[in-house]
Design a protein that fits this description.
This protein is an alpha+beta fold and 474 residues long. It has two domains: 207 residues, no CATH class; 142 residues, Immunoglobulin-like, CATH 2.60.40. The chain contains twelve helices and 17 strands. The strands form five sheets. The protein has a six-stranded antiparallel beta sheet with strand order 6-7-8-15-12-13. Strands 5-17-16-10-11 form a five-stranded mixed beta sheet. Helix 6 runs antiparallel to helix 7 and helix 9 runs antiparallel to helix 10.
Length: 474
């Protein structure tokens, strides 16, 4: 026993024992570690250290709740959806979109080439000729396929899968040929897409959901706005391609900004073709980007209004031109002066000094019984019109009896058209040729009632720029 053990210890009552603080929960001993204050390991043996895995003591915070008092876990919110305008590029295996706000249900892109061959670019206009010839033949098949698809959608609201596969394959080949011709790639267009830099994919048509009333006429009308914009964009593409051709020959690279513009115009064009073919009923956007979504109803309505106005304007313009041409090819003729040998107005196309075609009514013979006794019949009289027609074109033009008619009014007031009884071209019965670079003499004979009055003569020369020439008799 040591000296300390012999010292009497003070008595401790129960009350003082109750005042001694218990060891805080969550603390444990760390023997052997030096004390932070004194640096003595022995002092550290008398100090508790915090257990990181235990709850803090009541002296440093609120006591831990009982199991029945533990609050329920907070709900976990799902992560926000990625923004619709950006994101990584589409994967090779593209899944068609199915909800509004997602990209249009087709994908077209061309991988940007870091270097392009100068000699292939220099000779591109010659190298692409075989592919263009094949595309020209293929386009007839594509047009027939479009018609078959419209009929199928109108009748059954379904697009035949085999027809869809064939048309998308043909359009994909056209896209590869266009990419090659526009200098976007050096890889010659292949029949299969494979690893070609230009890739085109359409989402399969929704079977049984395609609209009948949108087929053909409605889609052509609402796409009028696209056709107008694309016409100007393709003019810009031609200019950009010429610039890119020189840039590639000098630097070996296609300027990236111009590359994106040409690819975007081609993408826009292919979107409109897919909508026109009724692969889907989602109106294509007025956009160049690959991530553009379907156009809204407002855009479709505006394009439809523009289409109606444009079609109406073209129709009105055609009618106006027709009326003006009718007035331009119409002349009033004094019939008595014509019988006396005074020529009527001469109609000319082309240069007046070197006309492409000219028609002159020289005179009329009425009656012409002595001239054409074979046509003389009781109660009738023969009338002959003498024409000089100059054919300044590079080929002969045929004139037949179907190209003339005469309108008369009988004594009882009945008006009718009369066909020629005989037409003679350069002394030979029609049909006959108006020889190139020669003036031909044409005689047109009619057999009419003896007391009939002549109202109008119409002649249709064998040259499309003329149309009908109308001689109104007075």
């Amino acid at each position: 026993m040591t000296e300390d053990d012999r010292q009497p210890r003070p008595a401790v009552d129960d009350e003082s024992m109750r005042k001694v603080p218990a060891r805080p929960a969550g603390l444990r001993w760390s023997p052997g570690a030096p004390d932070a204050a004194t640096g003595n390991p022995e002092d550290a043996e008398q100090r508790p250290s915090a257990d990181p895995g235990a709850m803090p003591p009541s002296a440093f915070g609120a006591p831990p709740p009982l199991p029945s008092q533990v609050p329920p876990p907070l709900p976990v919110e799902p992560p926000p959806a990625p923004p619709s305008g950006g994101g990584p590029p589409l994967p090779p295996r593209w899944e068609p979109p199915s909800r509004a706000g997602e990209p249009y249900p087709m994908r077209f892109d061309v991988a940007y080439p870091e270097r392009l061959s100068r000699w292939k670019t220099l000779l591109r206009a010659f190298l692409v000729i075989p592919a263009y010839v094949f595309v020209g033949i293929l386009d007839y098949v594509v047009q027939a396929g479009f018609l078959a698809g419209w009929v199928a959608v109108f009748v059954r609201r379904k697009y035949p899968r085999w027809l869809f596969a064939g048309l998308t394959g043909a359009l994909g080949f056209n896209a590869r040929v266009a990419s090659y011709g526009l200098l976007l790639t050096d890889q010659y267009p292949s029949f299969e897409s494979g690893e070609h830099p230009a890739q085109l994919e359409y989402a399969p048509p929704p079977q049984g959901e395609l609209s009948r009333w949108r087929v053909l006429l409605w889609k052509i009308m609402v796409l009028t706005g696209h056709f107008v914009v694309l016409a100007f964009l393709w003019l810009a593409v031609l200019a950009v391609t010429v610039i890119a051709w020189f840039a590639i020959l000098i630097t070996g690279r296609y300027p990236r900004g111009l590359f994106g513009f040409v690819t975007g115009v081609l993408r826009w064009h292919l979107r409109t073709l897919g909508y026109l073919a009724s692969f889907n009923d989602r109106f294509p956007p007025f956009a160049l980007g690959a991530d553009a979504g379907p156009g809204g109803r407002g855009a479709a309505l505006a394009s439809a209004i523009a289409g109606v106005l444009l079609i109406g304007g073209c129709t009105a313009g055609a009618i106006t031109v027709s009326v003006l041409e009718e007035g331009a090819n119409r002349t009033d003729v004094d019939y008595a002066a014509l019988v006396d040998g005074q020529p009527a107005q001469t109609f000319i196309t082309g240069d007046s000094f070197d006309p492409t075609f000219a028609v002159r009514l020289e005179r009329a013979t009425d009656p012409a019984g002595d001239l054409l006794p074979v046509l003389d019949a009781p109660g009738t009289r023969a009338v002959v019109f003498h024409f000089a027609m100059l054919n300044g074109t590079s080929s002969d033009r045929e004139f037949s009896s179907s190209r003339a008619r005469l309108r008369i009014e009988a004594a009882d007031g009945d008006r009718k058209w009369v066909k020629p009884a005989l037409v003679v071209v350069n002394g030979e019965p029609a049909p006959g040729d108006l020889e190139e670079d020669e003036e031909s003499q044409v005689r047109i004979a009619f057999l009419i009632p003896l007391d009939a009055e002549l109202l109008e003569l119409r002649v249709d020369p064998p040259w499309p720029a003329f149309g009908d020439i109308k001689y109104q008799f007075r």
